[in-house]
Specification:
By secondary structure, this protein is α+β, with helices and mostly antiparallel strands. 40% of the residues lie in helices and 13% in strands. The chain has helices at residues 3-17, 25-34, 56-65, 77-90, 93-105, 219-235, 246-255, 262-288, 297-320, 345-351, 362-373; strands at 110-113, 129-133, 136-143, 154-160, 171-177, 183-188, 197-208, 212-213. The chain has a four-stranded mixed beta sheet. The chain has a four-stranded antiparallel beta sheet with strand order 2-3-7-6, with no helix packed on it. Helix 1 (3-17) runs parallel beside helix 3 and helix 4 (77-90) packs antiparallel against helix 6. The N and C termini lie far apart (62 Å).
Length: 393
């Protein structure tokens, strides 16, 4: 049998043993993970079967056709897109078996403790300290722009463990329990009125060394796996034609002919073509992932995602005229996910402004594309061989 046929057989067996209409949602998701049908390219015993990544769509299509529940991927996107591939690449066998199953089923939400008030774009300049005491690390510092921290059980965390070496070499990567004493989460209210972001204060938090990912001082290398996967997760998500931001504005154009002008028509056509080109490029990028971990190409996709979202949402506000200036609800909320298409044009316009900051600023990603994709000379750096403790702050 072909691998695709084998996956369909396994999927049919799962559906027969756990009928979606009579099986508890969580029980079904756990059974799917144990059957190796969660992410088929992962190893056996960790939710996969060691099959080609490209065959995941075979399983997903068969399950969707039978009304099987999914794991609400938008709610647990940080775990799926960033934590899981990093744990798979650098975690011990014990860590993989402890964290991956509840992560995939959505029982445990993850967040990302990377950016800091003084180290956003220059992430390697971070100042959160981790000092070893026996088999534990005592961590102190502050993180910012932490999506889902208010609902997360676990966090991926990078902290400085050696201030006497250059900034990229003195970082270590940890898994932090967000329920531990000393972890304080405060909401950051955004221009949208919501507080989907948070700042996190870490005071004398003790992290066992068993929750370290990778070697001591190797945190920057480990973090690159997270960051590369993050950019693909943001800019390379699988969408149908007219999925994402281009969908609502195209729908309005078709249903509201009285709003049309020649200029808006030309701009919409241009953005529609660019959105479709970006969607197909993202599909090609996902196919390339079959050969290994994502590289710097993900930065280009994330750049395109941010620019298109901002231009399309701006066009939508213009198309709607006075209606585009309205806003549905400024109520302070702490949502579990970002819903671009479930809100109105005003929300999309305001929220898309953050797309050029989150997941790597546009300026930083342009440098990555220039240096690592196009092979252009690196920018001059005066801090390359200077110990972190000696850097001006």
């Amino acid at each position: 049998m072909t691998e695709a046929a084998d996956l369909r057989r396994r999927t049919a067996e799962l559906l027969a043993a756990y009928p979606p209409d009579t099986t508890d949602r969580l029980d079904f998701l756990r059974a799917r993970f144990d059957a190796g049908l969660a992410w088929v390219h992962y190893p056996e015993g960790l939710g996969g079967l060691g099959a080609p990544r490209s065959l995941q769509v075979v399983v997903d299509a068969d399950l969707e056709a039978e009304g099987a529940p999914d794991n609400d991927p938008r709610r647990i996107g940080i775990g799926l897109g960033m934590a899981a591939p990093t744990i798979l690449a650098y975690g011990t066998e014990e860590q993989k078996r402890q964290y991956l199953r509840p992560l995939w089923t959505g029982e445990e939400v993850w967040c990302q403790l990377f950016s800091e008030p003084g180290a956003g774009s220059d992430l390697a300049a971070l100042g959160t300290r981790a000092v070893r005491e026996g088999d534990e690390w005592v961590v102190n510092g502050q993180k910012v722009w932490t999506s889902s921290a208010h609902v997360a059980r676990w966090a991926i965390l990078i902290a400085r463990t050696d201030p006497d070496v250059p900034k990229h070499r003195g970082i270590t990567y940890f898994i932090c329990d967000m329920t531990d004493p000393g972890v304080e989460v405060r909401p950051l209210r955004q221009v949208t009125g919501e507080a989907e972001f948070n700042e996190v204060f870490i005071t004398d938090v003790r992290i066992p060394d068993s929750r370290r990912l990778g070697g001591i001082g190797d945190g920057w290398k480990v973090a690159q796996t997270t960051l590369n996967n993050e950019r693909v997760a943001i800019g390379g998500m699988r969408l149908p034609r007219e999925g994402g931001m281009i969908g609502p504005v195209s729908k309005t154009w078709r249903e509201r002919p009285e709003l049309r002008t020649h200029d808006l028509h030309q701009r919409l056509l241009k953005l529609w073509v660019e959105a479709e080109a970006a969607r197909l490029t993202a599909e090609r990028l996902r196919q390339q992932l079959v050969a290994g971990q994502p590289g710097p190409e993900g930065a280009g996709m994330k750049l395109a995602f941010a620019r298109l979202n901002q231009e399309i949402s701006g066009l939508e506000v213009e198309l709607r005229g006075e209606e585009g200036l309205l806003y549905d609800d400024w109520t302070m909320r702490r949502p579990e996910l970002v819903d671009f298409v479930g809100r109105d044009a005003g929300y999309r316009y305001l929220r898309s402004k953050g797309n050029s900051i989150e997941g790597g600023t546009t300026e930083v990603l342009l440098n990555i594309v220039a240096e690592r994709v196009l092979g252009l000379p690196s920018e001059p750096r005066t801090d390359k061989d200077v110990a972190w403790k000696d850097l001006a702050r």
